[in-house]
Amino acid sequence: MIAVIRHEASKQQVENLVSWFQARGLKTHVSEGEIQTIIGLIGDTSQVDVNLVEGLEIVESVKRITEPFKSVNRKFHPADTVVDVGGMKLGGGHFHVIAGPCSVESHDQILDVAESVKASGASILRGGAFKPRTSPYDFQGLRAEGIEFLLEAKAKTGLPIVTEIMSVAHLPLFEQVDVIQVGARNMQNFELLKELGRVKKPILLKRGFMNTLTEFLMSAEYIMAEGNPNIILCERGIRTFETYTRNTLDLSAVPVLRELTHLPVFIDPSHGIGVSRYVKPMALASVASGADGLIIEVHNDPPNAMCDGAQSITPEQFADLAEKIRRIREVVASL
Ligand code: PEP
Ligand code: MN
After folding, report:
1. Per-residue pLDDT tens for 20-30?
2. Which residues line ligand 1 (CB under 6 A)?
3. E strands, the chain, where?
4. Considering only CA atoms, which residue is closest to atom 1 of ligand 1?
5. Does 282 score more than 90 pLDDT?
6. How confident is the model at residue 47 (pLDDT cuts 50, 70, 90)?
């Protein structure tokens, strides 16, 4: 970290600031130029509050040289992390598609969708049992019963399952769930993240729709700092001024995250764009962008879905998409 000092600062003030940094366990390197003095800070600067330092009278600006995230940082772990989901490998060049309805609505619905997405090549089944809805009057999910139905679909098809957790209190219900999803709305529920760090299960962490990539990676850091390295990042669109789409799918997150972190990066084009007819082009673009996988909402009767019908594609549309994904994958692999 570098602190640029205002030229009117006195020697004594600079010395006081140097002592202040040293008292925080940091080594300092003062370079006095003709016009400006710069203090270089060496050591773990993750504890330093940049805003506080920048607010000091004699400080002109502060720049971080190293990122505040450590465990998830590729600098300290150059090789891709490969997450094991029931013997299946995610990340590190392996590509997977997660598919299924937004919510588990009934026993027959989830079994039906599970069988058709499996037949088209999906490798993991999704389905929300606990639903984070904007209105308390909307369908909240089948909760524990929804997880039971997912487990039945898993037993029948052999597909591992991913489902969203909303409260630490529900963790015992997730014992047999293969991947625990943390939704966009809970990306910064730090107590939940810490608890999931103590569980060794794979976590699908979705980016909050108002969060920067640094904040996203800091949330992953919360999980990893507690000892769970099995994290799959998922870009699912951010809120912008655009109204034709539900969110703006930030595909630029893929190359940036690839560079910054070793964790696998998945894309959710369904929530990212929110309109079923736009899901296919964005899914294909996600594959071309270098993502490690996709998560797609598939419903057997989208017009009557209890949640997110507008962005859900049918099993037939998914079959067509899965075939096109394979073709784009071949092109990407040959480049
Ligand atoms: C979901 O996956 O159905 C969901 C609620 O996703 P997000 O948290 O990205 O909105
Ligand atoms: Mn949904």
Report:
1. 999 999 988 88
2. 102, 128, 132, 183-185, 206, 236, 268, 271
3. 2-5, 27-32, 37-42, 59-63, 83-85, 88-90, 96-100, 124-126, 161-165, 179-182, 203-206, 231-235, 265-267, 293-297
4. 102
5. yes
6. confident
